[in-house]
Write a structure and sequence with these properties.
Layout lengths: L1 E2 L12 E4 L7 H13 L6 H10 L1 H12 L3 E3 L22 E2 L1 H6 L10 E7 L3 E5 H17 L7 E5 L4 H13 L2 E5 L5 H11 L3 E5 L1 E4 L2 E4 L1 H9 L6 E5 L18 E4 H6 L18 E6 L9 E5 H15 L7 E4 L6 H7 L7 E6 L16 H9 L3 E5 H9 L19 E5 L5 H11 L4 E4 L1 E3 L4 E5 L6 E2 L5 E2 L5 E4 L13 E5 L9 E2 L4 H11 L8 E9 L6 E6 L13 H12 L3 E9 L9 E8 L11 H14 L8 E4 L13 H8 L16 H10 L2
Parallel strand pairs: 5-17, 7-8, 7-9, 9-12, 12-13, 16-17, 16-18, 18-19, 19-20, 31-32
Antiparallel strand pairs: 1-2, 2-23, 3-4, 5-6, 10-11, 14-15, 15-27, 21-22, 22-24, 25-26, 26-28, 28-29, 30-31
Helix pairs in contact: 2-3, 3-10, 5-6, 16-17, 18-19
């Protein structure tokens, strides 16, 4: 691999930052060669392979099944009906029977029993779990669940952090055919209940406490309140996330059944030697329930199937990320976020997964120095090969001008690192350059995009393609991603911005929305097929595709598109300029459009900025800074992009995953009466925006 450090040159060209030095040694190159020979078609580059994958979806997904080594109890009779629509969701690999957990516990690569399957890292210690021990722990937990009455189709929930036992509980549940769903313990009770009351879990695993930034956060009060309002629960299992923390079971009273500690849950099994049994299930059998962001109303429970999740994740890990048996995969994530599920699927490719629970900024040793060093030191300590995080984390390191490799107090080498993944929001072009100048000059920077809706990716990384500044490398194999304008015209080749759509079926489409039946089916249809019809998945992202590189440029969410004077552009374009030029003065920003019925004849672009320390939350913005921000946006973008209003705000509303909540603020400013969902992690700050709207009529 090699980094490229070339001048920007022509302003219309895209700067190349990295190019793989050994593309022929990658698994995707091997796959391309096999497909070319088997099907007798010339595949000269990635774009040829992608085009074939979306033109022949049945053949492509069949090749993925074989190349990635899907373990099935019964073979398939048909891959996919020809010309199947996206909605109603078509069936893939009809006739087959398999088990999701079995594919993760017994991957085709057949790792040795003594090899490491999971490394658990916390602020207080490390735990290394071998493949043999992982299988044994899943066996014990699955048999305890069976004795507790859990059956295929039941829901098992976790109010639980990112620990090894969380992975164990998920695998145990899915080995039975139960559906797994989880919410991080830092989530408020209202937000948890908004989710779990809809899906009526039979069992709840819950942490006894959580540790973040050296502070112990109690969970007893939350659990007591949740359990009292979940009449479906038969069993509550308290996990010792903090072994030194005393948790009193008193007051935790399920409507039926019992509450117990995890160790007692396992030891009370009547037949402790019963083998681990994997239920043989249809390919569309549900395994996960995830939830839409729910920023303006109750979150929708999105149900993902076994084979679709498995196929998509294995394709992405093996081909797009070049993850191999024995590699060490890390993603900084909570159990709520879809990236936790993506991380855990690394087991199916024989990788060691690293699960971390704690603050990403806490020093990991007494001589740790600045807290920003926590994650780089973890990479060195645990010899991580593939490191994933949010775009926000990387931009914070950039704003701190941190270079871990030259840090004066015990610098790190990051020598094992081959890839850095970034998602949750668009990665700014300046942050692309920061990664190569200050973190590592020779890694694949995988800015990726997808979502909870597909539990995977539309825009992916690729180890045989270069990385260009500000761009996602490619459209994922088998994902017929296009860009449509508002009228439904395909503008993918024009370099113009529009809506990200998908025009061919793919296995990772949700199998349903909860509840099963007509109500859930209508929620499903309205979520993705209300805009362009049943043959076009409308994802809700605003993007453009660079015809020179075929890379994707993320411009924000479709519902956050700004349209002053009818010109459409994305909020991410504004954020990139602010980060590039004002990182020392502006900690964060939020850009929305304001248009009120009967008041405004056109949309006004409003930019809120959270001033960087030492400014106080109440510090007003100077007119000098306003003028400089507007001038920079005019110069970098165009006069049409310049915000009509720039003002300081005390806080930016975010989801628990760190995404900016543009739509809620936009509706507040437009005078709409909305019900704010509990997914806004810092919802109290919205009162400031309501007051701002009232004071700025």
């Amino acid at each position: 691999m090699s980094s490229i450090n070339q001048p920007d040159g022509d302003s219309t060209a895209v700067k190349e930052l990295w190019r793989p030095s050994s593309p022929h040694a990658t698994q995707i190159h091997d796959f391309k060669t096999i497909v070319s020979k088997k099907h007798g078609i010339p595949l000269n580059d990635y774009n040829d392979l992608w085009q074939w994958s979306v033109s022949e979806p049945a053949k492509f997904w069949e090749e993925i099944w074989h190349y990635t080594g899907i373990k099935a109890h019964k073979p398939y009779t048909k891959v996919l009906e020809p010309d199947a629509p996206l909605f109603p969701r078509p069936h893939f690999f009809e006739g087959s029977r398999l088990n999701f957990a079995e594919n993760l516990l017994y991957p085709a690569s057949n790792p040795s029993d003594g090899g490491i399957a999971i490394i658990q890292a916390t602020e207080s210690g490390r735990e290394f779990v071998s493949w043999r021990e992982l299988r044994e722990r899943v066996r014990q937990c699955a048999n305890a669940l069976r004795e507790a009455g859990v059956q295929t189709g039941d829901r098992v929930a976790g109010f639980i952090g990112n620990h090894a036992n969380t992975v164990v509980a998920m695998l145990a549940a899915t080995s039975i055919g139960a559906l797994w769903t989880a919410v991080s313990p830092d989530t408020g009770v209202h937000a948890v209940l908004e989710r779990l009351t809809q899906i009526e879990p039979k069992v709840l695993f819950a942490d006894n406490a959580s540790l973040y930034n050296d502070k112990v956060h109690e969970t007893h009060g939350k659990i007591r309140e949740m359990v009292a309002k979940l009449p479906s629960l038969h069993l509550v299992v308290i996990c010792e996330a903090l072994r030194s923390h005393v948790f009193d079971l008193a007051g935790i009273i399920p409507h039926q059944g019992r509450v117990c500690y995890y160790v007692d849950f396992l030891s009370s099994v009547r037949n402790p030697t019963a083998p681990l049994h994997f239920e043989s299930l249809e390919p569309d059998h549900p395994v996960y329930i995830l939830y839409s962001s729910g920023t303006t109303g109750a979150p929708k429970p999105i149900v993902h199937g076994a084979l679709g999740t498995l196929l998509q994740h294995k394709k992405e890990h093996v081909l797009h990320c070049d993850i191999r048996p024995g590699d060490r995969l890390f993603y900084y994530t909570t159990t709520t976020w879809m990236m936790w599920h993506w991380l855990v699927s690394g087991l199916a490719s024989g990788a060691t997964i690293v699960v971390y629970d704690g603050s990403p900024f806490r020093p990991l040793d007494p001589e740790g120095g600045k807290g920003e060093m926590a994650m780089p030191r973890l990479i060195d300590e645990l010899q991580i090969t593939h490191f994933g995080t949010s775009a926000k984390y990387l931009s914070m390191l950039e704003q701190a001008s941190l270079n871990p490799r030259t840090y004066p107090h015990r610098p790190v080498t990051l020598q094992t690192l081959r890839a850095i993944f970034s998602t949750a929001s668009p990665l700014a072009p300046s942050t692309f350059e920061y990664v190569y100048s200050s973190l590592h000059p020779d890694v694949m920077l995988g800015s990726i995009t997808g979502g909870t809706d597909i539990i995977s990716l539309f825009g992916a990384c690729c180890p045989i393609l270069p990385v260009h500044k500000g761009e996602i490398q490619c459209r994922g194999l088998g994902m017929a991603v296009s860009v449509f304008d508002y009228a439904g015209n395909d503008i993918s080749s024009s370099n113009e911005p529009g809506d990200l759509v998908c025009t061919k079926p793919f296995p990772a489409q949700p199998v349903m929305f909860w509840p099963p039946g007509p109500v859930g089916m209508e929620k499903y249809r309205k979520s993705y097929f209300d805009v362009f019809g049943p043959d076009v998945w409308h994802h809700g992202d605003f993007v453009r595709i660079n015809p020179q590189t075929s890379g994707l440029v993320m411009l924000g969410r479709s519902d956050g598109v700004l349209k002053p004077a009818g010109v459409r552009f994305g909020s991410a374009e504004i954020y990139n300029v602010v980060l590039k030029h004002f990182a020392d003065e502006v900690e964060d920003s939020l850009c929305v459009g304001r248009r009120r019925e009967g008041i405004d004849t056109d949309e006004t672009v409003v930019l809120f900025v959270k001033l960087a320390p030492p400014a106080e939350p109440s510090t007003p913005i100077s007119q000098d800074l306003v003028a400089r921000i507007q001038a920079a946006i005019r110069k970098e973008l165009s006069p049409r992009h310049v915000p009509g209003i720039v003002d300081a705000c005390p806080e930016i509303p975010l989801t628990s995953n760190g995404k900016k909540v543009e739509n809620v603020v936009k509706q507040i400013l437009c005078g709409l009466n909305i019900k704010t969902g509990a997914s806004v992690a810092n919802a109290a700050c919205l009162d400031w925006y309501r007051a701002w709207a009232a004071n700025n009529p």
